[in-house]
Specification:
This protein has helices at 2-17, 68-73, 78-93, 106-113, 146-158, 173-182, 206-218, 232-241, 253-260, 272-279, 293-296, 330-341; strands at residues 24-27, 62-65, 99-100, 120-123, 137-139, 190-194, 222-226, 247-249, 265-268, 284-288, 303-307. By secondary structure, it is an alpha/beta fold. The protein has 2 domains: 2-158, Rossmann fold (3-Layer(aba) Sandwich), CATH 3.40.50; 173-345, 3-Layer(aba) Sandwich (Rossmann fold). A 6-stranded parallel sheet has the order 8-7-6-9-10-11, sandwiched between helices. Helix 7 (206-218) links the parallel strand 6 and strand 7. Helix 1 packs parallel to helix 10 (272-279) and helix 6 crosses helix 9 (253-260). It starts with a helix and ends in a 6-residue tail after the last helix.
Length: 347
C-alpha cells in the first residue's frame, strides 16, 4: 500500500505531462482500489473512465493483476504457471514502449521483465540491489525521500523535469456514501488512529494510543481507530480505555480512502494509512522507530514526526517494538497533534 501511494505522485505528474499516453499499472489485486473504482477479473484490464463526473480511474488506463502472494504459496503449481503465462502474453500484446519499476524489488523487476520491452527503467541503487541487473536503463536518483526518487524515475521516461503534484486517487461512489454516514453534519472533527503496523518493531504500544485517544476526546475531537485485517486486538483496548468513546473502524480500502478524505488528522506509525492521509492532503503525526522518516516519512502535507535519536534504521521484521520507539510518550504525541492541528497557536 505504501509503495503504491509513494509512486502515485510520480505517475500523476507523468499523466498530467502526457495526458494522451497509455499508462497502465501492474498491481497486487488487494491494492487495486488505490488505482481504480472499477471491477476487473484476475490479470484483466480495467479501462480508464475519462467521462465520469468523478475520477473512478484517474491516473491509469488499465490495471493488471499480479497475485504474487498467492503465487508464493503455490509457486510450482500448474495454476500459478498458467496465470503467469497468461499475464506474460497479455503484457507483451500491449507492445509497451517502456516499463518503469517504481518498487525496486527483485519481485517487481522479474514481473516487469514479463512485458518483454527493450527499455526497462529502474533505480541504479534499488531497494533490493539484485533488481538492478534486470533493468536495461538505470537511473541515479538524488532525492532523499522515496517519493522524490520515484519522480526522478518517472522523469526519465521522456526526459521531462517532473515536479511533485498531489496524487490522484479514485472515488468509490458506494464508499463515499458510507463515509458520509460516519460524518453527519454538525459532528465534531474526527482524528484517525492506526495502531497496527507491518511488523512489531514499528508498532507503538496500544496502551499509549489509548492515552492519546483519551486526550483527543478531552479536546472535543472524535476518534476513529482503524482496524486492519487481523488487527482487532489493537483497537479493542483503545475502545475499552475510552469507555466506548473511540470508535473502531473496520473499513475496506475504498471506505478507508473515503473516510480519510474527511478526517482532520491522522496519527500512526510508518504504515499505509499514514501515507494515505498524506496522499489526500491531511495533516499527520508520524510515530517512527526503525524506519527512516527522511526516506519513508510523511510528505506533501502538514506533519510532525516523532522519532528517538537512538533509533537506527532496521528493516528486520522483529516482533517487539524497537527500543527508541518506546521512548516516545503519549504527551509528546498529543503536543505534536496540537501543533499540527492548530499551527497558528504554536509557539
Amino acid at each position: 500500500m505504501g509503495d503504491i501511494l509513494h509512486a502515485l505522485p510520480a505517475v500523476t505528474a507523468l499523466r498530467q505531462a502526457h495526458p494522451t499516453w497509455q499508462i497502465d499499472w501492474l498491481v497486487e489485486p488487494k491494492w487495486s482500489a488505490l488505482l481504480t473504482a472499477g471491477d476487473a477479473e484476475q490479470c484483466g484490464g480495467i479501462e480508464r473512465d475519462t467521462d465520469s463526473p468523478v475520477p473512478l480511474k484517474p491516473v491509469v488506463d488499465k490495471v493488471y493483476f499480479a497475485a504474487t502472494k498467492a503465487w508464493r504459496k503455490r509457486p510450482l503449481s500448474s495454476e500459478t504457471r498458467g496465470e503467469l503465462a497468461e499475464l506474460r502474453s497479455t503484457l507483451r500484446a500491449q507492445q509497451y514502449s517502456a516499463v518503469l519499476d517504481v518498487q525496486g524489488s527483485l519481485r517487481s523487476a522479474i514481473l516487469g521483465r514479463l512485458a518483454g520491452v527493450r527499455r526497462f527503467i529502474g533505480e541504479a541503487a534499488p531497494r533490493e540491489k539484485q533488481a538492478r541487473w534486470l533493468f536495461t536503463q538505470r537511473v541515479a536518483t538524488h532525492g532523499s525521500h522515496v517519493i522524490e526518487q520515484d519522480i526522478e524515475l518517472a522523469s526519465a521516461v521522456a526526459g521531462d523535469v517532473l515536479a511533485h503534484v498531489p496524487p490522484m486517487l479514485p472515488f468509490h461512489p458506494a464508499a463515499e456514501t458510507r463515509a458520509e454516514e460516519l460524518f453527519p453534519e454538525g459532528a465534531s472533527p474526527a482524528v484517525l488512529l492506526n495502531p497496527g503496523a507491518g511488523w512489531g518493531a514499528k508498532r507503538w504500544p496500544v496502551e499509549r494510543y489509548a492515552a492519546v485517544a483519551q486526550g483527543l476526546i478531552d479536546r472535543g475531537l472524535r476518534v476513529l481507530v482503524n482496524v486492519g485485517p487481523g488487527e482487532e486486538a489493537y483497537a479493542e483496548p483503545i475502545v475499552a480505555a475510552t469507555k466506548g468513546q473511540a470508535i473502531a473502524l473496520q473499513a475496506d480500502l475504498p471506505l478507508l480512502i473515503a473516510v480519510t478524505r474527511r478526517i482532520v488528522l491522522a496519527i500512526a506509525g510508518d504504515t499505509g494509512p499514514l501515507h494515505l492521509a498524506c496522499a489526500v492532503g491531511k495533516p499527520v503525526v508520524g510515530i517512527y522507530g526503525p524506519t527512516d522518516p527522511s526516506r519513508n516519512g510523511p510528505f506533501g502535507t502538514r506533519f510532525e514526526v516523532l522519532r528517538s535519536p537512538a533509533s537506527v534504521r532496521d528493516h528486520k521484521r522483529r516482533p517487539d517494538p524497537e527500543a527508541g520507539l518506546l521512548t516516545i510518550e503519549p504527551g509528546s504525541v498529543l503536543a505534536a497533534a496540537d501543533r499540527v492541528l492548530y499551527p497558528e497557536t504554536a509557539q
